[in-house]
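Page 37, top half.
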Amino acid sequence: MNASLFVSRVSIGELASNQLFTASWIALHGAAMIVFLSLIGRQDSRNFTFVCALGAFILASAAWSVAPSVTLIYGGMLAGNILVAHLMASELSFSEIIRLVARVILVLSLVAVIAYYLKFSTVYYYDAHQRPNILGSQPFRGFTAHKILMGLYVTVGLASVLATMRGAARAFWIIILGLCVALTGSMIGIVIFAITPLLFFLIKKCALSGIRPWNMLLTGGALAAISAYFVYANWQNLLALLERDSTLTGRTTLWNLGVDAWLQRPLLGWGFGAYLQSANSDLTNRAFNRYGTWDIPHFHQSFIQTAVDLGAVGVVILVGILFYVLAASYKYALNTDAATGSFAFVTIAVLIMSGMVMFAYFNYNHLGTFLVMLLFFALRRESAISDRGPIVGATERVAMPADSQRLLDVRRRPARRSFSNLVEPRYPGYRLIPSGNAAKAKRAF
């Protein structure tokens, strides 16, 4: 959002920076550091260890990077964003995180749509191929860098609406978000937006029906295989429907170039963000030149780009994080709350699908990367608390942060108290965790 507000687009495909953007960039990072220092004593120590290890690996890639200064700058920003995700997960409950994500995306989407119809060019997307959106008007990027990103963001917003709202409010925001994705003209955004409600209610239904994780894995794997075969068998028809060429607007060419680059340094890669910021970028740009004359910023595929940046080690870490969130979110939906667990599952599933055709993670300034890490840390914290087990005779329990082994017994107040009004002591880091019959009661609500 910062860049979309303060960086002017001087011509199609070209950007010009300015002092206002630089000042705002410094101010945001300064504010993040202040927040970090204020919360340093209230962290989940297990997650913090992971943050340090992952951040150290990313920064250490400068040692073998072909552009060490680039790796240190952008790797440091990625490590900082991962740290902020950890701090949020330490400070907020899982449901609070989802409500926060919903508010941010919904407010920005509504303001951006209003700005679009008031003809503020800041929210316009200038397509290099001069393609209008499906409504026949100028494509829309909102307060993001690209129309594809806007499509992804509103899809996450849709999942949050399905998880947190009912009735007229849900209908209103679905209409706003549907208008947003239609205005983008992004076929990727439109497809994942259409898939999201079906996937959300399927996962929620499975969780409420008590389908166990292994059965879910087998069923999901079979459905994914059938879907992949359908796409393969109808590839040309789908391309015609989406009005795309066989290279997906040059993406397959970029993917081939990316795989070739990775195979030259398969284990540790070329250093975070370094390959296309070095002399290698000239070779890539020349190979891709028939699709345009602009510089190629990345390989437009999350797993290939991560392989080029951080090698097979980085890809293994990324895949492990993604699959952990899928498994943990379904477990949360099954045992604690079907709606919020389904939101996390669908969000990661959508990010995996979109990551196949766009660079969403590990990206130093992308909401996709931030959401992956935020959900990862939040679910690890939930798992660490729930694994301690219920206290005998307690209706509810409150767990201290992960570095403390104390559990505090919290009971209902007498007579006519709702589930949401349970007593919660005012200590930093304490959170109510449903156990036993209370968990079932929460799911019933």
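Page 37, bottom half:
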Amino acid sequence: MLTNIVTEDFIINREALTLKAYNTIYMDRIENSEFMNILNNLLFENSLICILGTPVYPLTNDQNRDYMIDEYNEVDVQKGSLTNDLVENIYLNAEINVPIFIVLNPLADKEYFSKEENKFIINTTSESFLWFDYDAESLYLIK
């Protein structure tokens, strides 16, 4: 169950994320087996998986996909395409501290990462965002 937390208790790497005053943050302690259930219970049509660096576990079925090493990468995924393997690989990458940020219902013309600042940017009220804390012990939903 995701519970509301105050911004001061928000323990993720703030150097990689910019929050706005109107953001509401929810948090839940999770394990790999629970992550799929959480995603299934969230209302969204598609998602944008944002990775800072190179994922250790693949986040796409495209065998020919080249990830940029030490760069920002994105993978667009429809909710119906979230297979157990993909969800497990998202979690496994987060568990070994590959920075992963998931945008639920992303806007087509919106940028969610600032290369100049090397940060994920939350600058809208229309999307929701998922972020893992250190070692993927907790999952945050940012609205």
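Margin note: Residues 1-13 have pLDDT under 50 and may be disordered.
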